[in-house]
Amino acid sequence: MLGVAVLLLASVVASKASGRFGVPALLVFLVIGMLAGSDGPGGIDFDYPRAAQSLGIVALALILFAGGLDTRWPDVRPVLRESLLLSTLGVGLTAVLVALCAQLVLGLTFLEGMLLGSIVSSTDAAAVFGILRSKNLSLPNRLRSLLEFESGSNDPMAVFLTVGMITLISAPAFGLGGLGLMFLQQMTLGGAVGYGMGKLMVVVVNRLDLEYEGLYPAVTLSLVLLTYSLAAVGGGNGFLAVYLAAMVLGNSDFLHKRSLIRFHDGLAWLMQIAMFLTLGLQVFPSRISSITAPALAIALTLMFVARPTSVLLLMLGSALGWRERTLVAWVGLRGAAPIVLATFPLLAGVSKAGLMFDVVFFIVLTSALMQGTTIGWIAARLGLAQRSGHAHVDPLDLVSSGDRDIFEFQIDDTSPAEGRRIVDLDLPPNTLVLLVERAGTHIIPRGGTTIRQGDHLLILASKDLAPAVRKALGE
Fold first, then answer.
1. Which of 5, 315, 396, 441 has a C-alpha 20 to 30 A away from that of 431?
2. For residue 112, what pLDDT is reported?
3. Alpha-carbon gap, residue 475 to 467, rounded angstroms
4. In sequence order, what DSSP letters do the residues of 457-471 get, joined into one string?
5. b (16+ CB within 10 A) / e for 268-287
């Protein structure tokens, strides 16, 4: 417990410092994990790829769910074509180009190169969400929606390709026909389970009518895990199911929407820290030094050849201009998803799996250092963004901070406010009636709104005015 507490606190504090210097938080978490590992001063002996993979899968599912909850369908619809092309064909094209480079510099077979290319083919949702939001980049809404939706929707394709390549290497007789059937099964079942579970989540949250609000996060958390596991057990793609379910839920009306979105956002950050720390512990930096040159060649090919080529080819005819396409080509961040996928060949006993894991880790570090630290600078040079001077603060947090607070009042038959209009109430100055709940419905109040018995009022006022408000309402 002491070790976990120290690592968690160190990661949170270091991430705050990293924001000032433009260093991605994911890189900080990884480095702390490496320092705490067997090759670092921490000396923690950790070599459990199955545990790292299991934690990584759960963490990625929760991160994708949080991203899907915050994805607005009206924002995504204008860039749906480009996003889907990049998250499917773009992932495949990137894998092929990386495979060709890996054949040349590592001496891998084409299938082994395709396995390596598949592992690093997708942009990482956690990395992209973290970079775009932590840097407070005011990107155009269309461009931001494209980047976030692509990063959230391309993991399923990378998972399919990785599993497919492992199957082809282990059982060559599986063939391209079997690969095609696997694709249809994973995407069809994953999509069906995700859409169905998203609709079910809306019904469950709205109709369960729990006595304690604090239980609703437990309900949604269990539904996320249920969504992934149902899809995976049935042979579908669990990541696709989770992301689609989150989008369906996030674009619907449900109880405690604001608090649940904030809960899952905080849980996603906790999962990022836990995942990156664990993967940092799993790597052995002493082994990476021996593959630095070929791994750097593959990383540069991925950043300057494979990703730009796929973006430029697949976005032909797009309404986005060359500046937007240039930024999309550069925002090809690789994060924890490739490292998690790199554990798949390790557990499957694939030849050269250890080499692939080390190369993938080096690529992630290089991507975080070169791309993660320069996204804001490049976006500004392209005239697409301005760095905000301060972090965004929720307005509702501001109104209930300092000397102000939001008070709740119930109107009964003895209240002097019963039957009177709001404008006629003896409320002190600088007091605002925010909301009136009446018989299960919510009314946005005006001065002429008449207060009735049984009404539930939310009132914003200075804390020192609370006694005067209670007197005016008869409490």
1. 441
2. 95
3. 9
4. EEEEEEGGGHHHHHH
5. bbebbbbbbbbbbbbbbbee
Residue 390, domain member (yes or no): no
Q: What percent of the chain has pLDDT over 70?
A: 92
In this prediction, residue 246 carries a pLDDT of 96
CA distance 297 to 102: 9
- For residue 100, the tally of other CB atoms under 10 A from its CB is 15
| Final residue before a domain boundary, out of 332, 359, 381 | 381
The string of DSSP letters for 105-170 reads HH---HHHHHHHHHHT-SPPHHHHHHHHHHTTB---HHHHHHHHHHHHHSHHHHHHHHHHHHHHHH
Cβ-in-10-Å burial (0-12, 13-18, 19+) of 134 comes to middle
Residues forming a β-bridge with 459: 407, 433
Domain termination site, one of 323, 351, 381: 381
Residue 442: strand, helix, or coil: strand
User: Which amino acid makes up residue 439?
Assistant: A
Question: In whole angstroms, how far apart are CA 176 and each of 69, 130, 165, 173, 315?
Answer: 35, 37, 10, 9, 27
Dihedral Cα 107, 108, 109, 112, nearest 10 deg? -170
Number of domains in the chain: 2
- Between CA 406 and CA 20 the distance in angstroms is 34
Domain ranges, residue 443? 395-473
Do 399 and 286 reside in the same domain of the chain?
A: no
What is the per-residue pLDDT across 296-327, written as a single tens digit (0 to 9) for each? 999 999 999 999 999 999 998 888 889 999 99
Report whether 294 contacts 98 (CB < 8 A). no
Residues 159 and 249 in one domain: yes
d(CA 421, CA 418): 9
Measure Cα distances from 207 to 143, 200, 291, 349, 429 in Å.
37, 11, 56, 47, 40
Q: Is 387 helix (H, G, I), strand (E, B) or coil?
A: strand
Q: What is the pLDDT of residues 205-241, one digit of tens each?
A: 999 888 888 899 999 999 999 999 999 999 999 999 9
Contact 102, 117 (CB under 8 A): yes
Per the CB < 8 A criterion, the answer to whether 309 and 296 are in contact is no
The number of angstroms, rounded, from the C-alpha of 433 to the middle of its chain's C-alpha atoms is 36
Q: Are residues 376 and 400 in the same domain?
A: no
Range with the lowest mean pLDDT among 15-24, 72-81, 340-349, 375-384? 15-24
Q: How far is CA 340 from CA 107, 460, 464, 467, in A?
A: 24, 48, 54, 57
